[in-house]
Amino acid sequence: MSHETHGSDGRSQRERMLAGDLYIADDPELAAESLRAMKLTAEFNLTDPADSEARLGVLRELLGSLGEGTEIRPPLHCDYGYQIHIGARTFINFNAVMLDVAPITIGDDVQVGPNVQFLTPTHPVEAEPRRAKFEAAQPITVGNNVWLGGGVIILPGVSIGENTVVGAGAVVTKDLPANVVAVGNPARVVRTL
Question: Is 85 a catalytic residue?
């Protein structure tokens, strides 16, 4: 399917995406950026586990920013990479999925369990715009010293406050304040820290 590179407002689909507006997902410029990210993630995912410098080098090329002392265990999956910003001393376990159509910002000292998903894209509920490949996105922000248990899913537009713990398998559908424990689907606060 082929679409115009620029919308009726003169902005490119990439500009529309970065602004958080509806855009055409299969735009050629965005497809090239996505292919770049796929190549870099494939390279990262195949790096020698003993070669931490090679892994860090690929991550620095892929991601928007990466703090000192942060470790990400492969495999990692993302859409573009450059919209992912990770603070210092953060640990991200195996099989993280970061759909960074909008920015994903993860603070310092965050612990991310295996199989955690950061999902920024949104799609129209109406059939016709969805069939036409329109989508948008909302950013995700994770504060400092958060712990996300294995299998947590974070939906578009969510912010998680510092020091919060999200239990394994929780689906975070709306913002969580700082200093709480949240569990379940949808995630709900069960305790203050």
Answer: no
